[in-house]
Amino acid sequence: MLDGTKVQLRSVTLGKYVSAENGGGMNVTVDRDIASLWETFKLWRVSDTKFQFRTFGGQFLTWSGTGNLLTATADSASSSETLYVERNDDMIHIKTLGGSYVQANAENQLSADYLGVPGWDANAATFQMSIVENNLHGDYQLANGYGHSKAKEVLTKHQNSFVTADDFAFLSRHGINTVRIPVGWWIAQDPNPPPPFVGGSLAALDKAFTWAKASNIKCIIDLHAAPGSQNGMEHSASKDGSVDWALSPEYISKSLDVIDFLCVRYAKHPALLGIELLNEPSAAGVPLDVLVSYYKRGYDVVRTYSSTAYVIICQRIGNANPIELYEADIGDHNVVVDLHYYNLFDPYFASLRAIDNVNFIYNSRQPQLQALDSANGPLTFIDHIHAGEWVNEWNVSNASQFDYQIFGNAQLEVYNGASFGWSYWTLKNDRMHWDFEWNIKNKYLLLGSSSTKKPNILLLLALAIAMLLLQYLIKQNIEIELGQQKDDALYEQLKFIGKSFT
């Protein structure tokens, strides 16, 4: 029951689903046998017992209409759109703040006029609630779900312990020279950001800059969460999955204010390498002209404070061509295009084997990078985590350590060709292969030698031989079935070589 949870409501007595006609903006009926988009509501959590229900079209259920009927006609939510929810497993009662219970009446409508207090038997005020999606677990859900005091306690503990100076020293020992640090827009109002967010992120960023300087590491500050959300995902602090950033000049202006704030604070810091103006704007929700205008204005903001800091612009995710940003005149120097590469999140990768994933890196990603790098435009930036970001993870089941080593090595080799370098998403994670430190410590990603341990020369030699053979095979572009069998046989030989030397 967190913000953005999608629910469907079915009347126990009528056996029908509650539906916002036309997706919202009209009456509410209880007459659908099958639930789809019009019958799905997003929760806005007010407290652990009070909620607002947002329709597919963006309007809210409200009990402020004529008579006792509930409609889906409110464009914003306040007290008339706030409803108590009483739960008994998957059964619920809905009650207005005025104290009246909502029922499915004989006319197949929702009305707030149930007499008395309903029990949990089959009555008109009892609904079966199905949670059909609960995917958002970001900053907004954490802060609003816990409440301010508990959220402050949880996040303070996290900020003080999750990443430390030792992590920066670890990165430095392994040849990492830059970190990309995601921030939310509310950092500009720290230590007292607007609800439900809690303070502390600015102090954490200050510490990161101090540790980076001590470890001779540079920092990229990335506006990962913009007001209104630029992609509807949890990592952009979306409240309910909506993409509203590009729809509001106020949100865009506020984002530029955040860039200004960050520049004032860090532009002259010796550890600053660049400012990323926005992470992963959605192609479906952010028009290109709006994004380019924002990038141009953001570039000017950065240049007001620094003539040398890199200004990083991220490609749109979804159905968008990376070349579109090369054709936009964002700025005249130190502009970087951030590409995000994952062998995940697309049905295309779902059935690929280990060798197919490696082939894709060389046959698809490498030519694209080379073409973009040779174009007349800004530098190409491969960034960690979700885009440009890359990760040593895929959809291959039961992959061996050697499979991961080959896949990681292919990505390192190709992404090292980007003129601005690459970033890995992410430093630490509860999923092992997303965790950079785990990959290095457990030799699933062979980044290079460590000052604390000599490299395994035989293993590196085996991998070098394996990669040479693998690249030779790929360059033959063998497509027929017999060729594919040879491909598999060679890959098995390479795995044997790697295991023998290991």
From TrEMBL:
Presence of the UniProt keyword Hydrolase in the record: yes
Keywords: Glycosidase, Hydrolase
UniProt EC number: 3.2.1.58
Keyword Hydrolase: yes
Listed name of the protein: Glucan 1,3-beta-glucosidase protein
